[in-house]
Structures are given as C-alpha cells and as structure tokens.
Fold each of these.
Amino acid sequence: MPTTELVKLYGAAWSVYVRIVRLALEEKQVKHDLVEVDVFAETGVPNEHLTRHPFGRIPAFQHGDFHLYETGAIVRYIDDAFPGCKLQPTSPKARAKVNQIVGILDAYAYRTLVWDIYVERVVSARQGRLANEETIAAALPRAAVCLSELTRLSDDQGFLIGGSVTLADLYAAPIFAYFMRAPEAVSLMEGCEKLIYWWQRFAIRDSMSRTQP
Ligand SMILES: N[C@@H](CCC(=O)N[C@@H](CS)C(=O)NCC(=O)O)C(=O)O
C-alpha cells in the first residue's frame, strides 16, 4: 500500500483512544483527516460507523482501501507502514516493556484514572451533578497501583521506555492529560517523581499541542 494513499481517522477529538492514534500519526508526520463521529448521539451510534466498527467504538481507521479498528492494531500498523521515527523498540526486552505498559494503561489505568477519577470529579462538576464518591474512593487504591507500577517500569531518559518516543508514551499521555486535572492527582502522584518529570516534558511536545481536544 503506497504511503501516499489517503489516511482517515473516524472518531472524536475528546477521545483518549482517538488521541493515541492522532499522536502516532503526528509523531510519524503522516497527513490525515479526522472525520467526526458521535458515538454518544441520542439516536445511537451512526449506522455508517457500525460498518467501520461493529462494536460502535472509536477510533476506526482507513488507509486507501485498507480498514482497521482497535487502537493497538492501528498504531502498530502506522508504525510499520509509514517511514519516520520508530515507535516500537527493536530490543526484545524494551519492546516487551513497552507492550506491558500499553497493556496496563489499556486494561487498568484508562478506566480508573479517566472515568472513575477525572470524569467523576471534574466532568461531573462541569455538568452540575454530584460526583459519585463511592466510585472515586474505590478507584483510589487501583490508581495507586497503576501509578506505582508505571513508575517502577519506566526509565528516566526522558521517555517512559528508552531515549525516544514509543507507544508507551502515546498511550499514557492522553490518559494523563485528563487525570492530572483531577485534584486527586496531587496526592496520588506523590512519590512518582519519574512520572511527573516524564509528564512535564511530554505534555509540551508539538504532537500534544496539535492533538489538543
Ligand atoms: N478497545 C478499543 C477501545 C476504544 C474505546 O473504548 N473508545 C471509547 C472512546 S475513548 C469509545 O468508543 N467509547 C464509546 C462507548 O463506550 O460506547 C480500542 O482500543 O480502540
């Protein structure tokens, strides 16, 4: 597939998973269009989107006539199919650690840090509803495990793993962009100096400003 074929990403700029893919495209300098899809529309997930993503989630991805969904598959395809910086290390151990961090963020940190803490504390206040304190309280110990594991597994060469940007950074950054706005982040991040240092550097990358929701 020629790399010049049109790249389209279907989703919404607020979505953590859409931003992960947009970050990959920005870091690899791949030209693309973001086509807005509202999966929370009152009338339900638009029918044409269900043909791209039968589970009704975002993002969905198109490169020429090649279609994909699932963020993990999309970002690895982008890394393999397009020239530019490599988002996955070649050393087996570093690559495994990148995949381990991606797995932790996907399976545990996304729901805990974004939905159970950020949305429940920050978005609920913006919407004028009371936060569900039980949801937040139950999330705190899970959040602490996520953060201490990310701290333990990460290097301190400026990126989570190694000396250049990887999928681990691209998965973590959109999650931290929301979580760090919750007041709970202040005490939860105590003792996570490596992560704080990483976030201070990563948050100001060009790809982050270009994908701001
Ligand atoms: N496993 C999917 C997860 C994608 C996902 O959960 N996307 C969220 C937005 S960040 C979504 O579509 N939510 C709509 C819903 O839950 O109905 C992936 O890796 O792409």
Amino acid sequence: MPRKIKGNIPKCALKYFPRECINLKVNKLSGIKEKSFSDLMKEVITPGLCPVCGTCIAVCPYNALILREESFKRSELHELEITRDIYKSIEDLCEQCGFCYYNCPEIMFSLEKAEEEEFGTVAKDELGHVQKAYMAQAADKKILKNAQCGGVATALLKYTMENELVDAAVGVTSTEHPGWKPKPTVITEPKDLHKFQKTKYTPAATVIGVTSALYERVRSKIAVVATPCQVRGIWTTNISPKGYSKIFQSIKLIIGLFCYGTYSYNDLFVKFLTKKHGITPLSVNKIDLDTEKMRVYVNNELKLEVHRHQLHKYLRKSCSDCRDFTNRLADVSLGGVGSPEKWTTVLIRTERGKKIFENAVKEGYVKAKPLSDRGLEKVKGLARLKLKEGITD
Ligand SMILES: Cc1cc2nc3c(=O)[nH]c(=O)nc-3n(C[C@H](O)[C@H](O)[C@H](O)COP(=O)(O)OP(=O)(O)OC[C@H]3O[C@@H](n4cnc5c(N)ncnc54)[C@H](O)[C@@H]3O)c2cc1C
C-alpha cells in the first residue's frame, strides 16, 4: 500500500510538487522503502562524503530537507553538519520515501553507465570524451572584465538565453552577508548574468536551483553551470532506477567547470582568511587558485599569495575522493588551466555542446582559437593526477 500523506506537509512542498504528484512518487517508491534519509545520514553525511550538490534537497517531495542558512551563520558549524535539532525537524517531516537516498550521487551514480548512455562507450582517456579543445573568451567587454577566466560560462549562457534555446540559467551567486557564500540562483534575464561570475571555492548546492527554476519560476528549458559533483547529482536523477529524471530532462545545456576541490566556508573564509590573515570576505573581490598558488585580491590588488600546500588541511573530505577534474559528463567543460590569463580553456564533449559553442562563436558571443598542445598537456596532467590519486599536494 502506498503511504498516505500526513496533514502537516508545508505549503512550500505542495508548491513544488502538487499532491497527486507526491502520491505518484510515493507509489513509485513503495517497493523499495528499505532505505531513507536516516541511511543517507549514516552512509554519506556523517562520514563526510557529501559534496553538498543539493540533489537530495532538490528531490525531496516533502520539503523536509532545506539548505539551512542558520547553520551557515553559526561559524562553528560546517556546511552540512546536521545537529540533533535539525535532524529531529527533518524526521518530523520525513515520510521515508527514500527519494533523497536513491537520487544521491554518492550512492547511485555510475560513471560507466552515464558515459555509455551519453557517448555510447566508456572513455579510456583521462579527459573523458572530447571532440575539440579551444581557448576562448567572451566578446562582451563587460563580461570579460568581470570574469574568473575568459567569461565563457557567462557568454554561453547569454547566447542560449538570447536565442531562446533556454528560458532559465542556473548557477551560483554570492551572498551579500557575509560575502562569498555560494547561493544557488535562477536567472531569467540575460542582463543579470554577471551576478554569477567569479569562482567561489566553497561547495554550492546548485541542483536546488534546477527544481526552483522548474517549480517556482515555471521554466522548462534550463542551462546549468556546475562542478563535477553537481553534474554527477544531475546525472544520477537520470540513471538511478528511482531517479527524479525530470531534473535531467529539463536541462538543455550542462556547462561543466574543471575542479580541483573545494574548501569549507568556515575554514577558508573564517579561519584562514579572516582570523589568520585579517582579510574579511566582504573586502575580497577575487580569489584565484591554480595548481601552485592561491591569490586573493582586495580592491583589484593582490593582497595575499600563498602556496596551495597551506590550504590542503582545509580541503573537504568529499573532494579528496573525487577523481574527475575536467567534468566528464558536461556538454562543454571549462577551466583556467592550459590557457593564458583572461582566456578560458574549453573542451567540447557532446554534439549539443558543439553546436551551441560553434554557433555562439559564429554569432559573435565568443572568440575562440584552438588550444595549444602545451595547454592540452597541462589539462591532461592534472586530470591524470586526480584520476590516479584523488587530490594530493
Ligand atoms: C570550486 C571550483 C574549483 C575550480 N578549480 C579549478 C582548477 O583547479 N583549475 C581550473 O583550471 N579551473 C578550475 N575551476 C574553473 C574556473 O575557476 C572557472 O570557473 C572556469 O574557467 C570558467 O571561467 P569563466 O571566466 O568562463 O566563468 P565566468 O563567466 O566568470 O562564470 C563563472 C561561473 O562559475 C559558476 N560558479 C562559481 N562558483 C561556483 C561553485 N562553487 N559551484 C558551481 N558553480 C560555480 C558561476 O555560477 C558562473 O556561472 C574551478 C571552479 C570551481 C567552481
């Protein structure tokens, strides 16, 4: 018998999933109810394996899981530390449907299955399937000026929105206070896309933005910018037998970012930058992290330069186990390594990625040149290292 919904479902949950829809999901899951949130807690969250991609929160039909701002505000708490009080309030709303568990990439994701479905074969190469490699740059001067690298992520979003290939873009903005906390955000007007720009080196629950685009903003064609763990979350909704595939199906472009790991906000911004170096998050206007150094800019001037070794102890545990540097399941993958300053390295993977990128170049949104052999070797070197050893310094 499918579970009956209790009377205390918050209105916000119904906004996301109309009642018939909740019943449908519970029906679908009624055969496999042996795993639920408490198992996710035991197997993923408590051992520190959760990358905070946001997929569990995005698929929860009861809105029992929410990204709690208050746990960010208390600086002694880490991103996904769930206190007894929080756990209790989740349990009160949880209907044990298991959706969070069966959509979690740490449990249900398989690279082989996903690559076979997307490309027909599992790539042996350290970069995954790549059709072409470029160094590229946004043609729009404002986008370029405000960019982390060459502003290609933003220029591609602008192209897809202005040409009505998508009706919403999901990415990450920074919170105003205390600054630099990644906030999953939906943008529907190209003029607002600059708000996404610049890399936040702390984890972002981007997948929440997809359900928010679907149900709060009533959009159906979405472009998303995401790190490898977030892309794995999106793909899990497609390949898990109990996946909430509407998330995957609504996405018309995945712009994947290279990633060599994230740090807890509390460690990077509170302990390291504020307490150790007297740099408050609000004063920072850019952070650059390459293979050797982290550079922090205040008022557009270099304020701090430290070797990456010094940050290693702050690396999140879930990142040290990740083996994907170049985001193997994106349509196009972007990074800084391999290209000169103010340029973005671009790996074209899928046919849809190729078409969008080439048309964005043709229509004058993006400037592109073939990536040099030396540049490509640098990308391969890091991809090989992460594939072999996870993240080491
Ligand atoms: C956590 C992290 C680590 C990275 N590490 C490396 C690395 O080691 N080597 C390398 O070559 N490149 C790395 N990158 C990619 C690089 O920093 C740039 O994001 C990429 O080159 C695109 O630059 P751009 O100028 O085209 O993007 P812009 O046009 O400036 O746009 C930046 C985009 O990044 C998104 N974004 C910012 N922070 C996050 C986040 N935490 N999670 C998800 N999306 C986010 C924004 O939504 C925006 O769409 C990393 C990115 C992230 C997010």
Amino acid sequence: MLQASEVEIFREFIRKRGLRYTPERETILREIFKIHDHFDVDELYLRLRNQGYRISKATIYRTLPLLIECGLVQEVYHEDGHMHYEHIYGHEPHAHFRCLSCRRVEEFRDERLEEVAREFQEKHGVQIKMVRYELLGYCAACRKEE
Ligand SMILES: [Zn+2]
Ligand SMILES: [Zn+2]
C-alpha cells in the first residue's frame, strides 16, 4: 500500500479520539490488510498467534469497532453466531451474495446501492459511513442439486 496508508489513517483516528495507540492495535491492522478475503476473529487470532504474536481475542474484539468506525474495515455477514469482516480501504464498495447451502460468498458491485445511500443521506440529513447489502439464497450449483 503506497497511498495515505491505513496505518496513518488509524493513527490519526486514535489520536483524535484521545485513545492510546498500542503496537498490538497496529499489528492487528497490518494483519487484516494482508488478508484478501473475508475473515472472522478466530482466523485472525490464529494467524497472529502462528507468527508468534501474543494478542488476545479480547484485544481483537476491542480493536475491530475502532477500525470499522474509521472506515478501514467493515462487517460483512453474520454466520454461526459470529461476525465476518473484511478490509475495505483501497477497495471499491461492493455487496455480497451468500449461498445458504454451500456457504460460498460472492462479491458484486452495483453503483445503484451507493445512489440509494446518497439519496437517503440527503433526504434524512444523516451521515452514511458504510453500505452493507447482502443477498441470501442458493447458488447455481446448489440449485441444481435440489
Ligand atoms: Zn451453493
Ligand atoms: Zn467482500
């Protein structure tokens, strides 16, 4: 990553919030930007542990909302009782289709979704930080098996 890096953005956010910037938080952030897929906390925890970092799940759970709030990471979907995430900074906004049978997740992009968000924002005077759009159903392969 060469442009205004995710680390700089996060540092600035933490500073403005008057929070403490810790090496653990930065390690979590850097690892998230190495994962080019959706992930959950267990997966992130294991990746960090396998590299010798001793960062607790509690620390990860406390750091994720901060990364979401500053627009670097988003929640993608909830499955098996826990949330799945992805980093979004540096990526085009996109939506997801999720197969209820094989659990395959496909990404797609449609500018109309952002238009809807923009319209809502103007009409209601709110500030939209993130658009989450999810389609649930059966993928083409699973439909055939029925
Ligand atoms: Zn399927
Ligand atoms: Zn995605």
